[in-house]
Design goal:
alpha+beta, Nucleoside Triphosphate Pyrophosphohydrolase, three-stranded antiparallel beta sheet, 10 strands, globular, Nudix_hydrolase, ADP-ribose pyrophosphatase YjhB, NUDIX family
Amino acid sequence: MDYVKYIRDKVGHSAINLTGVNVLIMNECNEILLQKRGTFPLKWGLIGGITELGESLEDTAVREAKEETGLDIKELILLGTTSGKDCFIKFPHGDEAYFITVGYVTKKYSGELLVDGIETKELKFFSYDDLPNNIPKSHLKFIEKYYAQSGTKG
């Protein structure tokens, strides 16, 4: 069941709260995996997405990582949350949402990177100093928090 579609059928374009996750997948060089999105907002960003009805946040992280990267992730460590007015998005088709997002980090993954060419246009590991300029602010908060807590900058 597509939870967001179900809610949108009830409330139209009105603002709603959506809960989701972002995952920082780190390699052995302490570089972060970013996704260049093929859909809105067409920027580089963290792996992640919206929870489905009844789905745990951890299961959402695992599912989204598999869908967006082809990787199987494990040993998720809670990084923090973002929410509030800074997390408001108005989509091009008119839908409005306030995102409540939980961030996780992992260095444990297996599999091969897989780009679907639709939702994901490119996947690449970046060092902190080489991060692209067009990353959403809410994603940058998680990235900066991780590097501040780890005491390293890739």
